[in-house]
C-alpha cells in the first residue's frame, strides 16, 4: 500500500460516487484528526450514508481516494477495512437476531482476533484459549454498555433501543481506531438518546475516533468537536459546532428542507 504524509486518521480526497442518474457524492474532501468526534449533518439524500459505505468498502468511489492511517484504503473489501480498524453501525440495525447478545458482541471482537470466527466455530486448540479471552472481553464491553443483564437474551427478542445499544457495543468490541455511527439516535426516546450521548463520550475516552451522522441537532452539536455539512452530495461547510449553527448557508439549507416537507404534507 502507498503511504502519504498526513496527521489525519482518515483523509477523504476528492471522492465522487454516482448511482445511475444520481450524483450521490461529488468531489467531497475532508479529514478526521485522531481522538475527535466529527459530526456529519445534511438533509435527507445529502450522501451521508453513501460516504460511510465508501469508507467501509461496500463499494468504491468513481473518483477520489480514501486514506486511513496514512494508507490508501480505496477499493478494499469491507472485511479488509474492518481488519485495519474501522467499525460501523448501520442506519437500520443489523444484528444476528438468532444469536444471544453476548454472541453478537463476540462476533464484533472476532473481527480483530487471530483465529477469526471460523476458527472459533471449528474449535481448534489455539482457538479455544482465544475464545475464552474474546468472551471475557465481550463481557467487559457488555458491562460498559450496561447490557450485562441481557447477555444470554436472544438479540431478536430485544426492544428497539436495546438492539441499537447492542449494535453499538458490537462495533466497539472490535476496538476500532475509527467508528462510523449512522444515525444512532434514530428511533430512540429522550432518555435513551441521553444515554447514547454519554456512551459516545465514553467511547471517545477509550481513544476511539468517531464519525457521527445524525439528524438530532442537539445531540450532534453538543457532542461533536467539528461538524461537516453535506448538501446534495457536496461539502457545504466544515467547522466548529457554534459556527455551523449560525452559518446562513446551513440555516437556509435546513429552512428549505422544512418548507419542502411542510408543503408536501
Ligand atoms: N445503493 C444505491 N443505489 C442507488 N442509489 C443510491 C444508493 N445509495 C444511495 N443512493 C442515492 O444516493 C443519494 C444519497 O443517499 P444517502 O443514503 O447517502 O443519503 P443520506 O444523506 O444518508 O440520507 P438520509 O438522511 O435520508 O439517510 C440518494 O439520492 C439515494 O437515493
Ligand atoms: Mg443515511
Note the main attributes of this structure.
265 residues; alpha/beta; Rossmann fold; six-stranded mixed β-sheet; four-stranded antiparallel β-sheet; 10 helices; 23% strand; globular; binds adenosine-5'-triphosphate; binds magnesium ion
Structure description:
With 265 residues, this protein is of the alpha/beta class. The protein folds into 2 domains: 175 residues, P-loop containing nucleotide triphosphate hydrolases (Rossmann fold, 3-Layer(aba) Sandwich), CATH 3.40.50; 80 residues, no CATH class. 42% of the residues lie in helices and 23% in strands. Helix 4 crosses helix 5. The longest helix has 20 residues. The radius of gyration is 19 Å and the shape is globular. The C terminus is likely disordered. Magnesium ion (MG) binds next to helix 1.
Give the topology, please.
Elements: E1 10-19, E2 22-32, E3 37-41, H1 48-56, E4 63-68, E5 71-72, H2 78-84, E6 86-89, H3 101-110, H4 116-122, H5 125-144, H6 160-173, E7 178-182, H7 190-205, E8 209-213, H8 217-223, E9 226-231, E10 234-239, H9 241-245, H10 248-264
Parallel strand pairs: 3-8, 3-9, 6-7, 7-8
Antiparallel strand pairs: 1-2, 1-4, 4-5, 9-10
Helix pairs in contact: 3-5, 3-6, 4-5, 5-6
The structure holds adenosine-5'-triphosphate and magnesium ion (MG).
Adenosine-5'-triphosphate (ATP) binds next to β2 and α1.
